[in-house]
Specification:
mainly alpha, Arc Repressor Mutant, subunit A, Tetracycline Repressor, domain 2, 2 domains, disordered C terminus, transcription, transcription cis-regulatory region binding, DNA-binding, transcription regulation, HTH tetR-type domain-containing protein
């Protein structure tokens, strides 16, 4: 362990040190899984990237799969925060949804390593992670469906199968965009995604176009 690392932990509680080491490993996981791939990245590589020994890896994670799930959850929380912060309650539903779609797609383009963890590396690793993917799609789409809601409590009462289809469509637009090196503008991607959201309700059919 380097002198710099020793100084980092001096005067800090055990729990604080463990929490910071865990965050360092998660950040390293996002970087390496998002550039080299999950299956091409071992524990030793993660530890080198984080500047920690393997002892500290196993202090927080049983294996690489656990770290991948933690990295995935970190990406999801960052995406959700940006989506929520982009919302403008009080504006039309169309304006709000387009704002949130823009935040979602812009964040993926701005952070391609994190986007790869979210879109590619996480798929098919384990049933537990597949469950996390399904939950994440629901969580990320919830602000959109709240904006499209027809009741005063912000609850969307439509067909759950339709919702799943819309969520999958938004995800596959992101996949194709990333696979083509994000060559399209964010506005172009929003325009492609918007009709999927419109399918969630007919309430917006007569609203003016606020995309400009």
């Amino acid at each position: 362990m380097t002198t710099t690392t020793v100084k980092r932990w001096t005067g800090r509680s055990l729990d604080a040190r463990r929490a910071e080491r865990r965050e360092m490993l998660i950040a390293a996981g996002v970087r390496l899984y998002g550039t080299q791939g999950f299956h091409g990245t071992g524990v030793r590589a993660i530890c080198r990237e984080a500047g920690l020994t393997e002892r500290y890896f196993y202090e927080s994670f049983a294996n690489g799969e656990e770290l991948l799930l933690a990295a995935f959850n970190e990406v999801i929380q960052a995406l959700l925060t940006q989506i929520v912060e982009a919302d403008e309650p009080g504006k039309s539903a169309k304006h709000r949804v387009r704002r949130m779609l823009g935040a979602y797609y812009a964040a993926l383009r701005a952070h391609p390593a994190a986007a790869r963890v979210f879109l590619i590396e996480i798929v098919g690793v384990s049933p537990e992670i597949d469950d996390a993917i399904r939950q994440s799609m629901h969580d990320l789409s919830s602000p959109l469906f709240a904006a499209l809601a027809s009741d005063q409590n912000g609850h969307w009462r439509g067909d759950p199968l339709l919702r799943r289809g819309i969520e999958g469509g938004l995800l596959h637009i992101a996949l194709d965009w990333g696979a083509n090196n994000y060559i399209h503008s964010v506005d172009t991607v929003i325009n492609a995604a918007w009709p999927l959201c419109l399918a969630a309700t007919s309430r917006l059919d007569d609203e003016p176009d606020m995309s400009g």
